[in-house]
Design brief:
hpI Integrase, Chain A, 3 domains, three-stranded antiparallel β-sheet, DNA polymerase, domain 1, about 5% strand, mainly alpha
């Protein structure tokens, strides 16, 4: 929001920023915009009193200007309770500034950013940016190692902190450019890549156990992730903070997004068409996934009564999509049951660290030796391989080719 000069010099007596009129109550209040509330400003609303036609409009306008000036002074000097020029203050700026890169990422990514930046703010929020040098950065790194933080955590911490440094440079915060130069000379070890993946044998056993547990939604989600090489969010969706978007499934201040819905399927449930959530900005064209080579998935879908084929496909007994983490926990529970049965049968157990996210990597690994790299890239909905992407148009065809080849092998 751009404020008029009269905010500061009172040259427009009727200028009343953030003034709200409640028609049903015939009363006035001052309410900051979302930007300042999300930055942590404590005054959510301020009752101004009076009613329409009482002749006090100029007094209320002056009061609004005074409240707005007070808020802006806080925002510039004490964002999220931190002194201006500290890392906590800059984190507040990053999360709330209108043109921050924070607003360019998907809602689910924003939630992850908020969580990690919360850890960073807690650790270094009171540290002045201008007092950040090589020695202090190394002490941060050492402190995390001394506390037993994993290599993955340390890398993630510094990656997110770099976003804050970058934003500081963009908005002209002194010393941030120097901090960036120092950070680039500090070696942060990359965590080892996860090598675990689910095999078809493991998937089949866990799906069968999910059925025995009376959790067909879990079985269907696992199969769709594995066979179509889809990320979990593109199958069963996720719950994010309700940002007042119209429509959709809502529950407890959250809205469900990104998953497969029944309106994506054709009339006879032989295929579904979907834009991939992670790459929707760079790969805007939808993928069409054929069910021709996955008869088990199609059969499971057809078992769902016609009158229930609205909204999200993967739903719980209450008719709503599973909350975040529910399917992951269900997968682990099914895995433990499978391994218990295998132990009784004197069979080697499956890896106990297997996770539901390993279903997608399992599908990719199975296909790796069966198709060429470019076909696999498109089937996996990856954006890398820009040269081949220029000449490739049928990404859906590539995806279905991979599914067909794997089906024949299975």
């Amino acid at each position: 929001m751009r404020f008029r000069d009269s905010l500061w010099d009172d040259s427009e007596p009727a200028y009343a920023p953030f003034l709200k009129y409640l028609k049903d109550r015939n009363s006035y209040l001052w309410r900051p915009s979302k930007k300042y509330l999300e930055a942590g400003y404590s005054i959510k609303t301020y009752k101004l009193g009076g009613s329409k036609g009482d002749g006090l409009d100029l007094e209320r306008a002056a009061h609004c200007r005074a409240l707005t000036r007070e808020m802006l002074e806080w925002f510039d000097g004490e964002a999220i309770g931190r002194k201006a020029g500290t890392w906590g203050w800059l984190i507040g700026r990053y999360l709330s500034d209108e043109f921050s890169s924070f607003h360019d990422v998907l809602p689910q990514t924003q939630e992850k950013y908020r969580q990690m930046l919360g850890y960073i703010e807690q650790a270094i929020g009171n540290v002045l940016i201008e007092e950040t040098d090589f020695e202090r950065i190394m002490r941060w790194k050492k402190a995390m190692h001394d506390k037993g933080r994993s290599t993955h955590y340390v890398k993630k911490w510094f990656t997110h902190w770099r976003l804050i440094v970058s934003h500081g440079i963009k908005v002209g915060v002194d010393h941030c450019a120097k901090v960036k130069a120092i950070r680039e000379e500090v070696r942060i070890q990359n965590p080892a890549r996860r090598s675990r993946y689910a095999t078809r044998e493991q998937i089949e056993a866990i799906v069968a156990e999910a059925d025995r547990m009376g959790r067909p939604h879990l079985a269907l989600a696992i199969l769709m992730r594995f066979e179509f090489i889809l990320r979990g969010v593109d199958v069963h969706g996720q719950w994010v903070k309700d940002d007042t978007r119209q429509g959709g499934v809502r529950d407890g201040g959250q809205i469900w997004v990104d998953g497969v819905t029944w309106d994506m399927f054709d009339q006879h449930v032989t295929s579904f068409t979907k834009v991939i959530s992670k790459t929707r900005k760079s790969l805007t064209e939808p993928y069409t996934f054929s069910l021709k080579y996955t008869p088990e998935i199609r059969q499971r879908l057809l078992l769902i009564p016609t009158d229930q084929r609205t909204g999200p496909v993967i739903t719980m007994a209450n008719g709503k999509p599973p909350k975040n983490g529910v399917l992951s926990r269900g997968f682990k529970e099914a895995l433990r049951a499978v391994n218990k049965a295998r132990a009784k049968a004197e069979l080697d157990p499956f890896p106990d660290d297997l996770q539901i996210r390993d279903t997608r990597s399992g599908g990719i690994t199975e296909a790796k030796s069966l198709v060429d790299p470019t076909t696999l890239q498109h089937a996996a909905q990856h954006t890398q391989g820009t040269t081949t992407a220029i000449y490739t148009r049928d990404r859906s065809g590539a995806a279905n080719n991979v599914i067909q080849v794997r089906a024949k092998r299975g």
